[in-house]
Write a structure and sequence with these properties.
The chain is mainly α and about 170 residues long. The chain has 9 helices and no strands.
Length: about 170
């Protein structure tokens, strides 16, 4: 299998998980696709390094997080004026919007390091060993970040409202 075929197969299998990881890190859905695409472009350019990595998923998630963080440093993400508003009819998504907002606000209470740890562990399903590689910290640091983040989330009023509704 050639480099391009191997890369295409990898992307096809991992794209949804990587985009969702970017959303959970704090991107809007469209921005998450852009961040994921930028990260995967870097991975394609350096595919030989990715291929040699002990854990490709951990390597690619590290590139994704680095791309996200560097993008936050350089870009302004405020409102952009437009001459015309789009006209489209959509179904009522109030419940899913409320849920997404509550989760987003709750994750927003975490530090960037804690948020990255929660996303990598509970969404990307990386092991602690993989997280050590991705985050470049000691195993104890990974555990303490997760522990502190889970304490904050357990006490979060946004999430307790959701618990009451379910």
């Amino acid at each position: 299998m050639g480099r391009d075929d191997e890369f295409s197969e990898y992307v096809a299998a991992r794209w949804p998980r990587l985009v969702r990881s970017a959303v959970l890190l704090g991107c809007a859905p469209a921005e998450a696709e852009d961040v994921t695409q930028a990260a995967l472009t870097q991975c394609l350019v350096n595919w030989s390094k990715v291929r040699r990595a002990a854990d490709r998923d951990a390597y690619v998630h590290r590139v994704l997080i680095n791309t996200f963080v560097s993008g936050r440093r350089r870009h302004w993400h405020g409102e952009r004026p437009t001459g015309e508003l789009p006209e489209r009819v959509v179904a009522d998504e109030t419940d899913s919007v409320d849920l997404a907002d509550a989760v987003s606000r709750s994750l927003g209470r975490l530090s960037h390091d804690q948020r990255a740890a929660v996303v990598l562990r509970y969404f990307a399903h990386l092991t602690e060993e993989q997280m050590v590689d991705v985050l470049g910290v000691a195993p104890g640091t990974v555990k303490s970040r997760l522990s502190r983040a889970l304490k904050i989330l357990a006490d979060d009023p946004n999430l307790s409202e959701l618990r009451e509704l379910s």
